[in-house]
Structures are given as structure tokens and as C-alpha cells.
Amino acid sequence: MANSGLQILGFALALLGVIGLIVGTIMPQWKMSAYVGDNIITAVAMYEGLWMSCAFQSTGQIQCKVYDSILQLNSALQATRALMIVSIIVTLAGLGVACMGMKCTNCGGDDKTRKSRIAMTGGIIILIGSLCAIVACSWYAHDIIQAFYNPFTPVNTKYEFGSAIFIAWAGAFLSVVGGAMLAASCPKGKPTPKYPISRPPSSKEYV
After folding, report:
1. Residue 128: phi, psi to the nearest 5?
2. Is pLDDT at 93 greater than 90 in this prediction?
3. Does residue 198 lie in a domain region?
4. Which of 34, 55, 77, 90 could form a disulfide with 129 if both were Cys (CB 3.0 to 4.6 A apart)?
């Protein structure tokens, strides 16, 4: 029963994690304009995401523009895009595999050992997908930090972390915890008896 509860909790955390990964990938607030230098007061806030860049004006208007060409993007953005998409696909596949191996479902047959192995495999797949997301977010964050502290970067083009990268990080962390819980549901081997099993005496011994 405890193993079943661990599987349900791990599946729920991994599901919340993949939702966070999808939301973070779609949001355009991966990095936002940093208010450094003398020009602190500005009427426009710039945001850049994986798919578009947006300008938020003080009047409440929002103007977004989708990136025209993939070839014009830098290598960090292209790699982050690819890794986040791979992460979402792999994590969803891991959730499907884990769902078939959970004890509370009827999929995967009635063999408990086989179902536990399927759930463990799904947890390992989820871990691989979440690690891809962690690498993607960390790579993008390193690119932001490197450009921020570069003395040749103009002050008005410096960016800092946006809310989307934190959501993606949180989703990856939840997926790691959920995948680890599912991977921990590995089947235990049947214990072998330490002493020989005593057999009842046959009827011939009493004759």
C-alpha cells in the first residue's frame, strides 16, 4: 500500500512538473530588461522568450513579435528550444509508461513484479526528460549572466532572469522528484528461507 501511495505521489509531482515545463516554454518572459545605470525610469519593459520578444508599455499595451528566422537566433536559444521540446516529449512519454505500471491501474497485466518494473522504467524516462530541461534552463541562464557582466554589452540591452525560466526550473525540479519516486518502486526479490523447510513426517514413520 505504501509503494502504491509513493507511485501516485510521484506521478502527481511529475504531472505538475511537465505542466510547469509546458507553461515555461510558452511564456515569453525568459529574460527581461534590467534597469541598470542612470536610465532607471522607462516606459517600456522588454521581454524575450524562446519563441517571441514582447514590449510591455506603461499604458498596458503589449506588442509581441515572433522570431522571423531560426538561423538568426544565437546558439544558446536554439539549444534551449530543442532541449525544452525534447524534455516535454520525453517526460510525457515517461508519464505514459509509468501510468501503465502503477498498481492502481489495470494496464500492464496482473503481474505485480512486471508492473513495478514498468513503473520504474517510466520514472527513469521522466528523470532523463527533466535533466534535459535543467540543462536547457541552466544554459540559457548562463548566457544571460555572461551577457549581463560583459563590459562591452550596452546598458540598455542588458537582461536579467524572467519569471518563465523560474517556472521551467520549478517544473524540472518537480519532475526530478516525481521520477525518482517512480524509479524507487523497483520490485523486491522474494526472500529465500535461511533454514530448510521442515516437512511433516510421512505415515510410514509411524508404522
Report:
1. -65, -45
2. yes
3. no
4. 90
